[in-house]
Design brief:
alpha/beta; about 40% helix; Rossmann fold; 19 helices; single chain; nine-stranded mixed sheet; 4 domains; five-stranded mixed sheet
């Protein structure tokens, strides 16, 4: 272990809120800039303490949030970010339970004042969440956790609410956290990495969730052997070559046959089945090749014949790592031995919609519908619920089909959804093309009309005077609210109810961070986990805390509640125009100024806003509003253009369309 943490030039740039070129210039122009203490010539590393002292003397060090400062030091001095988080998590758990804290490692002792301050501010649960969010950001030595959107979809398909859940490859606990958000009663997990197991278990313990996470190899040394649960969720390792097939040749968990050595993912399928009660559901994230590899043909066939496999969902590329691959979800249901197998299996091709992306920054709440995985997940859940309820009309051209099992039990037993979807009829292709072409023509016309009309400022004009958001709050021009915290004992992430509940009164809608980024209507419901209820007003500007860049949204429809992990900026109508404020917030300079060292969290108080008269602000606000509309239309043109190209190519290929002028 090193006594002082180190920092790279890129991290210095994020720390100071500048570009890397500025750091390079400092090194050249300031002889007293700290010398490298490690790394390479191309990528030097510097002593963090020395750099902070130099930046502070030069007046270049923005004020850091306690959590950012603590995490930066913790990740460096502990050697392993996971081990460091587990160590401070254990101390926070002692504080949560009101028991004396044990001795702390000498390397962590200097961090205790910041840890105590963070726990005083957020409570032990909230403090651990603050650190975990920074731990979960992509980076060297950090596990690739299942993204929250995907985890929520998986636990929704598994129907975990009110039941006991198991994750045999728990990692840092992303799926178990999603299960708790969805209302499971007990959560159990097993994880090969002891530090990750400790982190996942600490999160459960800090929320007093019954259950445990055990360190160990689930396949070779099943910690929950013989235990049947209501639901299993699993994101197994892909392509493992040493998973224990030699030792497990006659394992009782192989309920549909011995798993071939080259099919480790099917070993996890059988492991999850073995832990389900009859009627319980399991959902696994799988590489797409498992659906068609020849070595797994026999196992796939038996899963179909015995009624255990109920659905395969092809996700858009980018839903989880590896991001270039459109992964699959397998939905299993433990069938009773004497029950007749269901006649059909649901195959969903959600990958056909393209890759998971992020909506363009800017926009207003209550307008456009769904992007990224959020919109796809809603369609997947809807078609699965209809299929599970026995609805015979679940087929959706090009998206979902209830396929007869007998059709799947062919020579290959290929479960790839795209290969089992019916093609759109020839007449429907032509009609669809005409409609798409009309929509594209209309969007292109709107694009031209919305083109931003701006002129260059006079040369030699003085640099604009700015004020930080924090200064605007102090002057009364702006009211800053949030981020709203979860109520004590509640799961993090704000309200996440998938529906309005079973009571007679519909709970209030809640705007979530995902809604803001995707540009969708409020999708959450008030399930009692908010520590305070803040109703959104027209003209409010909301900004997610957990994001790589500032994504401001101007509220256009009142009535929803502010969700967790969101800043609410409420401008004084006589001092600030909301659209001007949103346009200023989303600038590249403010992205650098406001981002945390990890680049995954935003402190909007650091953002700089130009000082302009209210009339000038309104002119800028109108220009920004047009820019947002232009961006949305530009994205629509891209989607419609790609759809038109696909329809035209398919129609020409199958004879549904002919080149213009060619006789029938």
């Amino acid at each position: 272990m090193q006594e002082n943490p180190t920092i790279t030039a890129a991290e210095i740039a994020r720390l100071a809120g500048v570009g890397r070129a500025a750091v390079s210039n400092w090194r050249k122009r300031h002889p007293d800039f700290p010398a490298p203490v490690g790394g390479t010539v191309a990528s030097p590393e510097f002593d963090l303490v020395e750099v902070e002292q130099w930046l502070r003397v030069q007046g270049k060090l923005p004020e850091l949030a306690t959590a950012d400062r603590l995490w930066r030091h913790l990740a460096a001095v502990s050697g392993s970010p996971t081990a460091g988080l587990a160590a401070v998590g254990a101390r926070l758990l002692d504080r949560h339970r009101g028991v004396p804290t044990g001795p702390v490692d000498a390397q962590l002792a200097p961090l205790l004042p910041d840890l105590d301050a963070l726990a005083d501010e957020w409570g032990p649960q909230g403090a651990f969440d603050q650190l975990w969010h920074r731990f979960g950001a992509p980076g060297p030595g950090r596990s690739l956790a299942t993204p929250d959107d995907l985890a929520d979809l998986m636990v929704g398909l598994a129907d975990v609410a009110g039941g006991v859940v198991l994750d045999p490859t728990a990692g840092s606990g992303a799926l178990l956290r999603a299960a708790v958000r969805a209302g499971c009663t007990h959560a159990y997990g097993q994880e090969l990495d002891p530090d990750l197991a400790a982190v996942a278990g600490l999160w459960l313990a800090l929320r007093d969730v019954p259950g445990e996470v055990v360190a160990g190899d689930s396949l070779r040394a099943d910690a929950f052997a013989g235990r049947a649960v209501d639901a299993v969720v699993c994101h197994p390792p892909f392509g493992a070559t040493n998973w224990g097939d030699d030792e497990l040749g006659h394992d009782p968990r192989w309920i549909v046959g011995t798993t071939p050595r080259t099919e480790p993912e099917l070993a996890w399928v059988q492991h999850t089945l073995a832990h389900l009660r009859v009627g319980g559901h399991a959902v696994l994230l799988m590489p797409p090749t498992v659906a068609s590899r020849r070595a797994g043909k026999r196992i796939r066939g038996e899963l179909l014949r015995r009624g255990h496999l109920r659905a395969v969902v092809a996700l858009p590329a980018g839903a989880a790592a590896p991001h270039a691959v459109p992964l699959h979800l397998w939905v299993l249901r433990r069938a009773a031995p004497d029950a007749p197998p269901p006649p059909r299996v649901l195959l969903v091709d959600a990958a056909a919609g393209g890759s998971v992306g992020t909506a363009a920054a800017g926009g207003s709440v209550g307008t456009a519908a769904g992007g990224g995985l959020a919109g796809t997940a809603a369609r997947v859940r809807a078609v699965w619920r209809a299929f599970a309820a026995g609805d015979a009309e679940v087929d959706r051209d090009g998206f979902a089909r209830a396929v007869p099992v007998i059709e799947l039990l062919d020579e290959d037993v290929d479960l790839t959804p795209a290969r089992r979807q019916p093609t759109i009829g020839r007449g429907a292709t032509a009609e669809h093309l005409v409609r798409t072409r009309a929509r594209l023509t209309d969007a292109v016309a709107r694009l031209s009309a919305l083109m931003p009309q701006v002129t260059a400022a006079a040369s030699g004009a003085p640099a604009p005077e700015t004020l930080s958001v924090a200064e605007l709050v102090r002057t009364g021009a702006l009211h800053l609210i949030g981020p709203v915290r979860a109520a004590p004992g509640a799961a993090p992430g704000g309200p996440g109810g998938a529906g309005p509940g079973d009571g007679d009164v519909t709970p209030a809608r809640v705007l979530t961070g995902r809604d803001v980024v995707a540009g969708t209507d409020p999708s959450g419901y008030d399930d009692g986990t908010l520590s305070e209820r803040v109703e959104l007003l027209v003209g409010d500007v909301v900004v997610p805390v957990a994001a790589p860049q500032i994504v401001p949204r101007v509220v256009s429809t009142p009535g929803a509640l502010l969700g967790g992990q969101l800043y609410l900026l409420r401008p004084h109508p006589g001092a600030l125009d909301p659209w001007f404020l949103a346009g200023q917030l989303r600038s590249s300079g403010n992205d650098r100024q406001s981002a945390s060292l990890s680049g995954t969290r935003i402190d909007v108080r650091r953002a700089q806003i130009r000082r302009l008269s209210l009339d000038e602000q309104r002119g800028h606000g109108q220009a920004y509003q047009r820019l947002v509309a232009w961006e949305a239309t530009l994205a629509e043109v891209g989607v419609l253009g790609a759809e038109l190209a696909r329809l035209t190519g398919d129609g020409l290929a199958d004879g549904a369309l002919l080149p213009e002028g060619q006789p029938d």
